[in-house]
Every structure is written in C-alpha cells, then in structure tokens.
Amino acid sequence: MIPLRLEELSVVYGPRKAVDRLTLEVGPGEIYGLLGSNGAGKSSTIKSIVGLVRPAGGTVRVFGYDVQKDALAAKERIGYVPETSMLYESLTPREFLEFVAGVRRLDPGRAAERARDLVTAFRLTDEFEEPISSLSNGTRQKVLLVAALLHQPPLLVLDEPLNHLDPRSLRLMKDLLAQYVRNGTRGVLFSTHAMEVAEQLCHRVGILDHGVLRGEGSLASLRERGAEGDATLEEIFLHLTQEDAGVRAALASLERT
Amino acid sequence: MAWREALRLSRVAFLELSFQAIYAIRQGNILPPGDASKLSARARSRVLQSKALVAGLLGFLTIGAALILHDASLVAVRLLPNPIPVPVFQTGVLTALLSLDVAFLWWTGLQVLPTFLSAGVLPVLEPLPIDEPTLRQTAVILYLRLFDLPVLTLLVLTPLLVGFALGPLAGVAILPGVAVAVVFALVLALITGRFFVRRVQGSRSGGGRALLRWTYLILWVVPAFGLFGFVTLAPAFFGALTTLSANGPSALFDLLSGSFPFSLASLPALLSSGANALPVGGGGFVVLLGASVGYLGLAVAAALWMGPAIRAIGLTPPGVPVPADPARVTLHTTGRVYAVLVKDLRMASRTPGYAFLILLPILDAGALGLLTYVSGPGPGAGTSLALGAVTTAALLGAFFGPAFFAIEVVAYSYGRTLPLPERSLVLGKVALIGAIYLVAGGLVLALADLRVDQPLVFLGFVVAELPAVLAAALFELGMLLRRARTRGLPLVNLYTGAWVAVLVSIPGLFIASAPLVAFETLRNYPQPVALGAMALVALGSLSVIAPFVLRRRSS
C-alpha cells in the first residue's frame, strides 16, 4: 500500500492559490522532504493531508483512504507534528498524552510503555507533570513529537519538526526517522528549510515554489537537472526556484546601504 | 507625551487582542477559510458586539433601579411588607445597584482576563525600544479598553437616570460611588486574576493539586454567585434596613454607614433630603463621610497600582521543573468519550472561566439546599422546592453547551487532526453536563431532604427532567459543531463570542423548560400524572434530537 498519494491537489485562500494541482507520492519505506521558501505552500499541503484545510480540488489518499471521505480511517494512520505549537496549554504533557491515547483508543499497557520510552528518550521526564503553558518551545516540540509517535503510525506527517530542538534531540529525531521507515511499510513526509537535514535524511525531495512542484526526486536525479554536477541541495533549490539571482541582487543592494 | 504614544500603541495592540480573542491563533488555531483581509474587521466587530451586550445588561440593571427610585415613596411606604423611610430605601436601592455593578464588572473581568493573557500582546511590546512609563500606560489603556463600553455606560447612565429619578443634585452625588465601584471591580478582577494565573493555571498535575485547584476555583465563583446571592438576599437586606431605621441612630447603623458601597450610595439621599435623611447621629455622620472620602482615596491608590500590576501579570515567570523518576512516567488511557470528559474537566480546573460554569449550578444548588434547611419549610413544600431546584439546575444547564464547546477553541486545530468522531466529542461534553446536573440535583436533594422528608419527590423531578437537559445540551452542541464545520471558526469564547452563545442557548432553554411547562400545566392533576407527563416530554425531546445530532458522520 502507498502511504501517501496526492493527486492534483489545489488549496485556495480567497483569491490566492496556495497549492496548484500538486501531485506527489510517498512510497513505503520512504522519507520524503518537502522543501520550499516561506509561503511556497508546504504547510497548506500538509494541512490538507491532516484534514485541517479543505482542498479546492484534487484528492489526498492515506494508505488508500480518501482524507475527505474516510477522514477517521486516514487520521488513525497519521502521526502529525504541526508547524506551530498547537497544544492544550492548560494540560500537562501526561494529561495531553492521555487524551491523545484515549482518542486513538490505544491499549493502556502498551501506550504507557511506549510513552515511558519516548518521554525518557526525549528527556521529558522532569516536565511531564508541568502545565504545557510553562514549557519552552523546544520542550513543547518534544511533546508534539511524542504524541505523534505514540501510536506508531504508518505515516508520519511532520511540518518543520526539527524547529527548536536541541542538538541531542535533533540527532535522536533524525536517527529515529531513518530507523522508523526501515521495515519498508511506513512512510514519512516532512517539510523543512534545513537543506543539510533534507540532504542527510530524505530518500526523495520535492521543491515547491508558489504552490507548484518545480522539481522532485533523489538528490542525484536533481543534480542532473542542476547547474553543476556536484551541486548541494541548497544550490539545486535556489536554481530550481530561480532564487539564486535574487539572493545575489539582495546582497548587492544590502552592501550599498 | 507618553500617554499619546501609549494611545497609539494600544490601538494596534487592541486590534491584535481582538483578533486573538476571536481566532485564538496563539492558542493553536489556524485561520478560518475566506478572505483574510476581512478577518480583522470581523474580530473588531465581534468584540464590540460582546462589549455592547455586557453594557446593555448593566444599562438594564440601572434602568430598573432608576424606575424603582422614581416611585420610591410608593414602593417604600405602600408595597413593602413594613414601611421604610424613603431616603433609607433610596440608599438601599443604590447600595444594591452599586453592589451588582461591582459583582458584574468583576465577573466580566475574570472572564476576559485569560483571553487578555493568552493573546500575549504585552510580551510582544516588551522587547521594543519603548520607555517604561509608555509601556505601563499602554498596558492600562489595553486593560481599560476591555471594559470601555460597560464602564462608560455606568459612568454616564447612572448619574443621568438617578438624576431623572431623584433630581440633578442626586445624579451628581452618585458619580463618586459609581467611579469607586468601577475601580474596585477592575482591581478585584486583576488581583484575583493574578492569583489564579499563578496558583491555578501554573499548577502541576496530581490528585491533591487538582483538589486544591478546585478549592481555589470555588473562590473564583464568588463574584458571579454574588449576583445571584444579592437577588436572593435582597428581601432580607431591606428587612434589616427597615428594622435598623425604625430603631433610630445605633452603633449598627453607624457600622453600616461606614461600609462599602452603603456610604457612597447614601450621598444622593443626603444631598436631596438633607442631613437628617438617615438615622445617623453626629458620630455616624462622621463615619459616613470619612468612609466615603476613604473609599475615594483607596480607589485613587488602586487605580495608580493597576499600571505596574497589569504589566506584571503578563510577564509571569515560567515554573521550574521538578526532577522526576522516569519509572513513574505512566499513562492512564481511557475510551474516547471519557477522554473528552476528563480533558474538559482538567482544562476547566486550570481555566477559571470554564470552571465557573461547572461550579455555579453546584453552588447554586448548595445555597438553595442550605436556605431550605435554614428556613425549615413545612410539610408539603417538597413539590415546589423540587420544581424550583430542578428549574434552576436545568436552565443553567442550557447554558453549558456553548460553554463547553468553548473549551474546544483551545488547540481546536490539533483536535481536528485526531481520529475523534464528532459523536464522541459531543457525547463527552453531554456526559459532563449530565453529571453536573445530577450533582447539583443530588446536593439539593441531600440538603433539602434533611427538612422536607420527601426524597422520592425530589428524585422524581431530577430524573424526569434529566433527558431534557441532555437533549438541550445535544442540540446546542450539534448546532455549534455544525457551524464550526462550515465556518471553520473557533466560535465561542465566553466573552468575545457572547452572541453565538446566547443565540444557541435560546432554543436550548426552550427544550430544557418544555417538561417544566408540561408539569405546571398539569399541576392540578395527581402528582404522578403531572410528573409522568414531564418525563414523557423530556424523553420525547431527547428521542427526537439525539438521532439527529448523533447520526454517523465522518469528521
């Protein structure tokens, strides 16, 4: 089964088209990186996958389930980390995870064991009983990651998941994602601005620009389309989005002032 | 100069505050679909509407008091069970009005304060190069703007209407009382709000701490309960005034003259009827005037204190984590409906605005039970008492739907990404509403039954009405959820979405009161018949509404 398939997905906000007929697929055992500048349509794409935004056109299928028509079946298979901390501020991490585990109808024993392992791994033990409102951004991000991983979902949808994380948690998360898809059935879609992370981690990347997919493939296949044979992902990105000239012009302008 | 700059800053900051109050982006929501350029204007308009609603209610209270004052001689001498001197009666009415103003504004402040803090507008200004006095003044203006329409209504309408009823001099004389009442209410809201932000919102989890939080939250309900309490105790208050004034000058009346708001409320009567209007001696007169000046001074000091206090409340330091043993990390997982119920209770235990709605009917039931116990009604009073208790609990229950949906505003977007069917969400909240109704009913039953030995009558009423309370809650939640689905809005919070809450509550009130009307209609028939009809109407509404709201729908 294909973990995630988007076909001709369009997202519109008033007169503005955020995503324009986007088609992509995250295969089994694959980590797919969605790259793009601010406002390129990454978050809108992800929000339409998890059911937060109703697409203006096209379909989103999670393991064959249409997100619009079989929302519950699709959501049961997704672990989601939002771009901004969308948490129940007045709950503690334990209370929040109990709510998530209850809604996901997890086996109590297994949920407790899994939570203990994840909380220990992310070093959340000391903050486990503190209200989320009092936690730092990095700690909140860890709570969201634990909640997304609690039910071992076959599809992880992560919107800028590595924001705010300390170096240890960053490393842990990268290794965990690589390990997560190793069984060959799960998939991960994540958006990021960090090109070096995408370069290290992703089997394939898609480059979004103004809601349109400008390029897609493995780093090697993208290099073939790039200007130079040994180009980095950042150079490829700037080339495909035609931002390289813009960056040079901006620098020159700043130098003058 | 700083005030001008503060005014300029507060204009922008208040727009952001309104925006956050309606769309709750900082609380984890995403923007609703549609034209983003219209969202700010919509937020501003909805906040204005809610302020107008509060101002309207305060205006209604003031008009009511002015009408009574206008016919004071008729009411005081002819309509009350025992005649009371007109100036004393006028002072009593104005004391009641000022007390209600304080309680209502204080309650409003407590409801608004969490929104004020969660919007986070003050921390945004802190790092900017703005001098200290300007920041303080901006904070004051922002806080005052939350109350501007209600406060203006009081400051303008009260002197005008009191002047209309008692003469222009009396109108001017009530102004210090209104101003002090406003300052006291705003300061009380701030002091209690600050206390709860520190002790309740920041409280860690754990059984003992939850109990402590709920204990604190009972105190939170005091101002709102004061509104009910005053209405209940008004006859006793005027009775005591009659007795005191009949006895002439006394130490007790002098004590009353020094209390707030009686001293300030007596100024219109003193100015319009002369120094002998009240039964106070020379000493009492000094106490009265001294207390009035003292309250004015206290209000000025309190107003000056507000500036730094408003800033400080927005910058509460985060809690320090306590080292914990990893072996103690555990989860207690439940089913979906129970998970929603527990989540709402936990959030309410740290959010006074929501906790108030859980505690109010329970406290109200407790007070009703206590009053019944104290007054010791005779045999046969069970039916009337039970009907009264059930009516209060059921009608208060009809307001719960919007209130408990309001909790979903927090992290609404995250909740929508979870596989939570709408029926589980609705059932979790309806279960909580049913539980509150039963606890309130049980409390009245337990206390009243100590005096009125008719437990089955009470039980019969509570059980007969229960399906209607559940039906009202189901209907209201179903409507709100439908609106949320189509509009994509975090729709209701207790202050800023007041119109939506009120509109949805109206049909809910009809549903909850239909069985009570059925009972009243058949009251002359044998009680089992009337009670049976009541139960049938309640069950009928539940059987019509439940399938409609709970039909399977993918979410």
Key structural traits:
heterodimer; A: 257 residues; alpha/beta; Rossmann fold; 10 helices; 10 strands; B: 555 residues; mainly alpha; 2 domains
Overview of the molecule:
- The complex is a heterodimer of chains A (257) and B (555).
- Chain A has 257 residues and is an alpha/beta fold.
- Chain A has a single domain (4-218), classed as P-loop containing nucleotide triphosphate hydrolases (Rossmann fold), CATH 3.40.50.
- Chain A is 39% helix and 25% strand.
- Chain A contains ten helices and ten strands.
- Chain A has a six-stranded mixed sheet with strand order 6-7-8-3-9-10, with helices on both faces. A four-stranded antiparallel sheet of chain A has the order 2-1-4-5.
- With 555 residues, chain B is mostly helical.
- Chain B folds into two domains: 2-244 and 257-317, no CATH class; 344-550, no CATH class.
- Chain B has 23 helices and no strands.
- Chain B is globular and about 75 Å long.
- In chain B, α22 (498-521) packs antiparallel against α23 (527-550).
- The chains are: A alpha/beta (257), B mainly alpha (555).
- At the A-B interface, α2, α3 and α4 of A face α15 and α19 of B.
